[in-house]
Design goal:
mainly alpha, 70% helix
């Protein structure tokens, strides 16, 4: 497969106007650059969402054990303080 494959995508007029507006705001060299940036942002966002979900699940799984350990050690928190 070629590394630089040509492609043509037809967009509805409203979406094409959006691409042109973003091209100006982003100071992109081409419409393709706007689409590439959008795709990269989508990949990064979905990767972050998956990572957040994994952390949320890990936290949920370990929460009970962590709270139990903190209760066991709570009496030591003020030890040695006057």
């Amino acid at each position: 497969m070629k590394s630089n494959t040509k492609s043509s995508i037809t967009l509805p007029a409203e979406e094409f106007r959006l691409v042109k507006t973003l091209r100006t705001r982003l100071r992109a060299k081409s419409n393709v650059e706007v689409v590439r940036r959008g795709l990269q942002l989508l990949v990064e966002t979905t990767d972050r969402a998956a990572l957040k979900a994994a952390y949320r699940e890990a936290s949920r799984v370990t929460r009970a054990a962590t709270l139990a350990e903190m209760r066991k050690l709570d009496h030591l928190a003020g030890e040695g303080l006057d």
